[in-house]
Write a sequence for this structure.
């Protein structure tokens, strides 16, 4: 039989990087979308911050619903 290819520490690290990457992707995406309407730098920063918040909330929701479904 073949055992797991990743140790627990590697899996935790990979999950954290995936979550951070997802949050950053949503935040950057919000900033890029805001560039379509010729915003001020403050508005771009605000949209990136709002996107980061939305990304974080999405990750929390996804993790919570995954844990509920695997009980």
């Amino acid at each position: 039989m073949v055992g797991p290819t990743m140790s627990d520490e590697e899996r935790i690290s990979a999950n954290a990087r995936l979550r951070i990457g997802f949050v950053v992707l949503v935040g950057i995406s919000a900033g890029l979308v805001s560039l379509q309407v010729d915003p001020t730098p403050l508005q771009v920063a605000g949209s990136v911050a709002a996107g980061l918040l939305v990304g974080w909330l999405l990750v929390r929701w996804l993790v919570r619903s995954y844990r509920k479904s695997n009980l």
